Amino acid sequence: MYLYWFHPGVTPLIVVASAVSSSDRQSEVENVIRFILYGSIISVENIDPSLTVLQYLREQLYRSGTKEGCAEGDCGACTVVVGELVDGRISLKSVNACIQFVAMLQGKVLFTVESLKAGQGKTLHPVQQAMVDSHGSQCGFCTSGFVMSLFALFKTTVNPDRQQITDALSGNLCRCTGYRPIIDAALKMHNIDNKQQGWINRPALIKPQPVDDYEQRVIYLLEKIRPQHSLYLNHSGKNYYAPLTLNELAQLRQDKPQATLVAGNTDVGLWVNKQLRELPDVISLVMVDELKTIRSSASDITIGAAVSLSEAFQALVIYYPELTDLFRRFASKPVCNAGTLVGNVANGSPIGDSMPILLALQAVLILRKGSVQRELSLDKFYQGYQQKDLKPGEFIEAIRIPININNYKLASYKVSKRYDQDISAVCAAFVMALDESAKVAHVRIAYGGMAAIPARAKQTERILCGRQWDEQVLTEAREQLAQDFFPLSDVRATSSYRQKIAQNLLTRFYLETKAQQSPGIFQLRDLDVVS
């Protein structure tokens, strides 16, 4: 293990002479994971590629402040904060350590609950002090996770309001203290008189604070470990590949078409933890900068395969503010910070919440095999349960979503047993436009949870198209929905419940849009309603 060490107020020093220098890295094969923890550059080698950050912290570093609760990214007891360089500043995000592989820390900085006292002796961080002052802990098992979620919020948002606080804590569960004192702590954490105010990175509508001494030191270390080559790990017959460029990824995918692709690991992590699956070959997208881009034009927004859900949703709500509530309820902050929109699409779960609205908006996938690209409409991608139109060696490079729609009505609704942090029983999406005579000129309706794949209600669309948007056509459309889908019963909902909810969501869309009719020509795409 090689360490770079610094003391607060002192320029970082290399204290281990054998540490790998920047020039040395240019010629070596990267088979060592390097990340920053507690002011040190830690080098890790010869580990199981599927070893999680949580296991590494607790079992090898004995940093037991990070807890294991559910081991599936639901309870938040394992929450840590990860940072990386973005445009010369450190971008922080909370993630679940239980479903992140250690290899995914390559080139990043990791903060655990123990890190908050770095250089401060016995002085508590303002977040911790606010929790103490507000009596925000009882048994304490969940406390470190709450503290880390609030630490991420503290570092990125000045004086957050209650909504921002509850969003930040949506992935943290407490079974004894209750949330009121924890929210109280969050409301007062910026008022604690302490020098650890830290930096603000890329906040919405807030000018970033100047780089302080602590951030400058972390930037220095991050520059030292900036990846220069692709990462390859091998242990006990397991292989982990993290290519650095898109071309490397494309070639690797062709060479190993059966390998498991990971980006945020929010699903694959559960394969390891819950299903105890062995992953002989894993290809990670997290180091490919070309896949982390969001590009917009006058007609479309294109989101790369490694763009997180948080970043993708933030970009999409600019054009579709109607989807704000759906995106808020999609998953917890740590899950959205790690998971990707393209990963959710590629997973193809029949209860994935992003697919219905993407189907309704006529999203297009950009697929790649080697150097060859092809485009495919999303509603042609799913061919059956866990069956997709992907050729061996092919992967999704990006998703393109239209944004040039005028005179439209758009909505998406999620129905689940819990408001936050729950899997949908039914998720519905609607896009509709009326012509000058108030007839339906264009309509696309899609549902999740109603079939083996996310799917459109094409027969219902046919009934609506060309008709007046009134109660008579609504009644016919409700009846047709029962013929479009034949859902299963499971632990989340019965078949009859799902049918009724699907019909009621169509009625809700009607009631919400009927009162604000604005006839006009639909300008999304020149495609037939049942294309």
Structure report:
29% of the residues lie in helices and 21% in strands. The chain is built from 17 helices and 22 strands. α3 crosses α6, α15 runs antiparallel to α16 and α16 packs antiparallel against α17. The chain is globular. The N and C termini lie far apart (58 Å). The N terminus and C terminus are likely disordered.
What name goes with the CATH superfamily of one domain? Answer: Beta-grasp domain
CATH topology (fold) name of one domain: Ubiquitin-like (UB roll)
* Proportion of residues in extended strands: 15-25%
Number of helices: 17
Termini Cα gap: 58 Å
The Cα radius of gyration reads: 24 Å
What structural class should be given to the helix and strand makeup? alpha+beta
Contiguous runs where pLDDT drops below 50 for at least 5 residues: 1-28, 202-206, 519-531
Oligomer type: single chain
For the largest sheet, list the strands in their spatial order. Answer: 4-3-7-5-6
What would you call the shape?
globular
CATH architecture of one domain: Roll
The major beta sheet can be summarized as:
5 strands, mixed
> Helicity range of the residues?
25-40%
Average pLDDT:
87
**What's the CATH class of one domain, please?**
Alpha Beta
Count of β-strands: 22
SSE layout and pairings?
Blueprint: E1 4-5, E2 13-14, H1 22-25, E3 33-37, E4 40-44, H2 53-60, E5 79-86, E6 89-96, E7 109-111, H3 126-133, H4 143-156, H5 162-168, H6 180-188, H7 213-224, E8 231-235, E9 238-242, H8 246-255, E10 260-262, H9 268-273, E11 281-284, E12 294-296, E13 300-304, H10 309-319, H11 324-330, H12 333-338, H13 341-347, H14 355-360, E14 364-369, E15 372-377, E16 382-384, E17 387-388, E18 395-402, E19 408-415, E20 426-434, E21 440-448, E22 455-456, H15 458-464, H16 471-484, H17 495-514
Parallel strand pairs: 3-7, 9-11, 10-11
Antiparallel strand pairs: 1-2, 3-4, 5-6, 5-7, 8-9, 12-13, 13-18, 14-15, 14-18, 16-17, 19-20, 20-21, 21-22
